[in-house]
Amino acid sequence: MVAHRRTSAESRLPRAAPVDKSPSSLRRRQNPIRRFASLLVAALALTACGEDAPSPVTPPPPPGPDTTAPGTPTLVRNVVFSDVESPWDIALASDGTMFYTERCRGLWVVRPGGLRTHLFGAAGAATVADDFFCQGQSGMLGVALSPDFDTNRTLYLFMSSTRRTDPRTNRIVRLQLDDTFAEVVSRTDVVDDIAFKDVATSNGGAGAHSGGRIRFGPDGYLYVTTGDNHDGALPQSPTRLGGKVLRLREDGSAAPGNGAPDGFDPRIFTYGHRNVQGIDFRPGTGQPYVAEHGPNHTDEVTALVAGGNAGWDPQDRPSLTCPDGYCGYAGSPTSMPMTDLARFPDAMRPAWSNRGESEGMGPAAFLRGAQWGSWDGALAIGIMGGRRLVVLTLDDAGDATAAAAASLPAERYRALTLGPDGALYVAVDRGEIWRVAPSAP
Ligand SMILES: [Ca+2]
Q1: What is the pLDDT at residue 31?
Q2: Longest dimension (CA), the chain
Q3: What pLDDT, on the 0 to 100 scale, is given for residue 9?
């Protein structure tokens, strides 16, 4: 599968009706019976095409028999919203306030009482960002709250922008909100030079492979995942911010201790990535783990070390035919590996890879808390083309020892965020946000 074709569920979903923000309408919208009925109707409607990996009509068998292992939690799923358009990420504040992004409309906030506001982004938002646009896989992607959000009401977005730049870029935008979270008080663009695929190539459309997940680590620094833009030289480039994981202070400057080699942009924490769309931090150790979307083979989960090379190098493979200088779709797990240990013997080895196939790995979140039973400390990863949520159990060394498919519907899993209530909040491409929690023992 070479070109990204925007024939996914996103382009076929009807545009949502304008949102009535009155409390009464929100109570109606959140009626659980109504939501469940709409879920059933919608579940019959759509099958999506992957970004890179196709969605099989019949999902492949789940990887492993562990869903019946002792201590595996029974999951209870509630649909929070079923009218979300191309959701991409979710962040939750300590008081239960939810923020979520829609790739083409922008940022939304939902207060604990249910009041929902289109806060920032495209026309219709309380604050319109006239430089914001969506194209291909890009738009309003990651959202993360400052570690001091409760007092500074500050959050961060990963978004594509036309502002001041030619070609266009992805950037990290910091917003400060008012006391009621209903308005944006100020905007500061703390990073404005993350690579964006500005023009289509024979490998796919503009806007492809932007990465886009952002999360604060337990060290207080902001981690930003970026993608290779179908540009062969980008992942190993020491200066360009694509195919990387960045680690930043809140002002966008390089965090201390990033460890990239001499000559690298100091904001780079790891490099040699293809398209990282999931990142979270292992409980206990704080080590960042990323989930990385493979080409026609080999999704990877990788534990990151400062200055590490993830080993993706889709350039100058004389044995391959590489359209537009990009070899990323040209080879096999041997001739164009996701982790090229022949070129980079010291590259970071994956903790888990997807059986030599790519099924479109997206988000990642560690499960935390005794309520998760034997999954406490396990890593949940969302699979888009393969339409399932996989739970990886890790050993002390950080390698996956078991992979279980969660008992959840077959969907394109786009966002995973653990909430302050210990539940997992999930967004799926079909336009829903769920709360998934283990049932009480
Ligand atoms: Ca790799």
Answers
A1: 37
A2: 64
A3: 26
Domain containing 214: what range? 9-438
Say if 142 falls within a structural domain. Answer: yes
97: helix, coil or strand?
coil
Contact by Cβ (8 Å): 369, 388? no
In the block, tokens 């990420």 appear at: 89
pLDDT classification of 419: cutoffs 50, 70, 90:
very high
pLDDT higher at 107 or 64: 107
**Residue type for position 383:** I
Q: Rounded to whole angstroms, how far apart are CA atoms 10 and 142?
A: 17
* 4, part of any domain: no
Count of the separate structural domains present in the chain? 1
**The pLDDT of residue 51:** 54
Residue 282 belongs to a domain with what CATH number?
A: 2.120.10.30
Return the pLDDT at 355: 74
User: For 396-427, b where at least 16 C-beta lie within 10 A, e where not — what string?
Assistant: eeeebebbbbbebbbbbbbbbbbbeeebbbbb
For ligand 1, a single-atom ion, the residues with CB < 5 A are 300, 310-311, 338-339
DSSP 218: T
CA of 331 to the centre of ligand 1 (A): 15
pLDDT of residue 37: 30
* Rounded distance from Cα 274 to ligand 1 centre (Å): 8
The residue ranges of DSSP E strands in 276-423, in sequence order, are 276-281, 288-292, 300-303, 350-353, 361-366, 379-383, 388-394, 400-405, 413-418
Distance 219 CA to ligand 1 centre (A): 24
3 within some domain: no
The closest of 337, 335, 291 to 311, measured between CA atoms, is 337
Ligand 1 center–CA 349 separation, angstroms? 7
Evaluate whether residue 2 is within a structural domain. no
Distance from Cα 382 to the centre of ligand 1, integer Å: 18
- Reported as a single tens digit per residue, the pLDDT across 336-355 is 999 999 999 999 999 999 87
Give this prediction's pTM: 0.86
For residue 100, which of 435, 437, 438, 439 has the smallest C-alpha distance? 435
What pLDDT is attached to residue 283? Answer: 97
State the chain's mean pLDDT as an integer: 86
In angstroms, rounded to a whole number, what is the distance separating the alpha carbons of residues 175 and 74? Answer: 38
Average of per-residue pLDDT across 287-299: 95
The answer to whether 381 and 278 have CB atoms below 8 angstroms apart is yes
> 329 CA distance to ligand 1 centroid (A)?
15
